[in-house]
Design a protein that fits this description.
This protein is of the alpha+beta class and 308 residues long. It contains six helices and 15 strands. The protein folds into three domains: 6-69, RNA-binding S4 domain (Structural Genomics Hypothetical 15.5 Kd Protein In mrcA-pckA Intergenic Region, Chain A, Roll), CATH 3.10.290.10; 83-165, Pseudouridine synthase, CATH 3.30.2350; 170-272 and 296-302, Pseudouridine synthase (2-Layer Sandwich). The chain has helices at residues 17-24, 30-38, 112-120, 153-164, 238-245, 294-302; strands spanning 6-9, 42-44, 47-48, 60-63, 83-86, 90-95, 144-150, 169-177, 184-188, 191-193, 201-203, 212-221, 224-231, 270-278, 285-289. The longest helix is centred in the middle third of the chain and has 12 residues, at 153-164. The chain is globular and about 65 Å long. The termini are far apart. The mean pLDDT is 89.
């Protein structure tokens, strides 16, 4: 390998090498990091590392990213977009349930990024890497709702700063199993990779990061509750993991909740309804909202009458 490596130093012990790389190199997903390791492109002391290596604090690794030519170029695809707001710096879309945000193994195209490339052309920031141009934050495939995309690096850096500083406000709505004795509450529990199932997240102390979700009851039904959730942090599957951890998994969530279809819903009943942030160029506060989509309204209708 004759290209220059990216040097990464582990800050704590016990973290897997693929998780470390995915966190420290924004352009890499965890699966992409695993591919690099399998190709021998991650070394320690000039020796390729193993994919299940657990890092020790202070370990230093050389990462050799493949040349751009080795990556299959992304295709611009004419996939309809529900644009909520757009200007020269950013675009906010209302993502439908079932649409993957960016290409990944198993989803090489047909994603939101492919649709954005068609809609925006080359006007997307490069900070997210070639596979995730413009993507400031993500929501799950089966989560619907608002998503901000940056059109240039200036906007991307400003919005990422707001996200990291917790000044970018995000509110979701969900339907969960069971009833609540209180009208509101907070789940403050760290989230990390599940200890035995690497495709899932879990409330855990090991290699976890702080996670805070504020919830509020919107309506009660027999056996279910319609709630709003406000995020202070943005961990993977945060709302799904937190609500399951307190005994209220999301309706339709097979990963963290019921093992079979519920109320005819495939995929969790979760909608990113509201965004509030400061426009990176003008400095003006922005508040955007996406009404509940048809699938969500249909689920509420199936739940029967509101009981309180």
């Amino acid at each position: 390998m004759d290209q220059q490596p990216i040097w990464i130093t582990a800050k704590e012990s016990g973290e897997r090498i693929d998780a470390l790389l995915a966190r420290e190199i924004p352009a890499l997903s965890r699966s992409a990091a695993q591919r690099l390791i399998g190709q021998g492109r991650v070394t320690q002391g000039e020796k390729p590392v193993k994919k299940n290596l657990l890092c020790a604090a202070g370990d230093r690794f050389a990462v050799f990213l493949p040349p751009a030519a080795e990556e299959r170029p992304l295709k611009a695809q004419n996939i309809p977009l529900q644009v909520v707001y757009e200007d020269g710096d950013l675009i906010v879309v209302d993502k439908p349930r079932g649409l993957v945000v960016h290409p990944a193994p198993g989803h090489p195209d047909g994603t939101l990024v492919n649709a954005l490339l068609y809609h925006c052309g080359e006007s997307l920031s490069g900070i997210g890497g070639e596979r995730r141009p413009g993507i400031v934050h993500r929501i799950d495939k089966d989560t619907s709702g608002l998503l901000i995309v940056a059109k240039n690096d200036f906007a991307h850096q400003a919005l990422s700063g707001q996200l990291a500083g917790r000044s970018l406000s995000r509110r979701y709505e969900a339907v969960v199993r069971g009833g609540f004795g209180q009208d509101s509450g907070t789940v403050d529990r760290p989230i990390g990779r599940h200890p035995t199932d690497r495709k899932r997240m879990a409330v855990t102390e090991k290699n976890a990061r702080p996670a805070v979700t504020h919830w509020q009851v919107l309506a009660r039904y027999r056996g279910y509750t319609h709630i709003a959730c406000r995020l202070e942090t943005g961990r993977t599957h945060q709302i799904r993991v937190h609500m399951a951890s307190i005994g209220h998994p999301l309706l339709g969530d097979y990963t963290y909740g019921a093992p079979s279809p519920d109320k005819g819903l495939e995929g969790q009943c979760l909608h990113a309804r509201y965004l509030k942030f400061i426009h990176p160029r003008t400095g003006q506060p922005m508040e955007l909202e996406a009404p509940l989509p048809a699938y969500f309204r249909e689920v509420l209708a199936r739940l029967g009458p509101v009981i309180s």
